[in-house]
Amino acid sequence: MIGIVSDTHGNTDNAAEALDLLRDRSIETVIHCGDIGGAAVVALFAGFDAWFVLGNVDRDYQLLADAVRNTCGTGRLAQTQRLEIGGKRIAVCHGHTGEFDRLRNASDIDYLLYGHTHHRKNERVGGMRMINPGALGGLWRQSRSFAILDEQNDEVQVVEL
To answer: How many separate domains does the chain show?
Structure first.
């Protein structure tokens, strides 16, 4: 199972609460779909098999890259990520660039994980499932949420804080 978070926007309280809930469920892999918002958020991912993509508010690349490298290892922060987990092909982007359009039209992806809109989405498009977990931070007035993907059973659960 995979935890999916996005749009923390530096909100360490909500990020910590979401990560605690994922730990309680023994989920070890967590993917952050961008708009991290700072090194303090990255530090909370210590102990997880964590992967990050950059969002439109993640302007201090070097600060985030250093934080990710020190917390999770190298190669774990990029504009997009392509991973294989449990035999499933997963692509991750924030959703604010043309890369999102390219990925959603790809034929070699089982799951496309993204953020940016702050709106939860779980839809199947052809053979691909597209998942936006919602937002854990930001100024918009909506409930805060993250998602859990059971890639073996192709099930998605949204968890509201």
So the answer is: 1
